[in-house]
Amino acid sequence: MNGVARAFLLVAILAGLCGMVWGIQMSASHDHTLSPAHGHLNLLGWVSCSIFAFYYHLVPDAAENPLARVHFGLVVAAVILLAPGVALAIQGKTELLAKLGSVIMLVSMLLFGWIVLKAPRRVAARA
Question: Which Gene3D superfamilies did the record assign (predicted)?
Fold first, then answer.
C-alpha cells in the first residue's frame, strides 16, 4: 500500500490507538461523559479513514487523482477539529470546532463521492 492509501491507513491506525486509549481512560475513571467525542474519533478517524485507505488501494486510478490528496487533507483537518470539538461542546465551552469539523467532514465526503463517481470502474489486478 502506497501514497494516499497508506497515508489514510496510518491516520486510521493513529486515530484507532487514540480512541482506544481514550476509551480505557474513560473506563478507568468511570466517567463516560465524553463518549460521544470518543465515538466520533473512532468512527471518523479509525473506520472512515480505513475505508478510504482500502478504496484508494483497490482503485489506484482514483488514488492518482490530485483530488485524493485534497480529500486526505480535508479528512485529517476534520478529525483533528471534530473529536475535540465535540468534547468541548459537551463541556459547554464552545461548539465552534465541532461545527467547523462537521462542515469540513461533509465537504470531504462530497469530494470522496465525486472521486468515486469519476474513477474508472476497473480495480487493481491481483498479484
Answer: Cytochrome c oxidase-like, subunit I domain
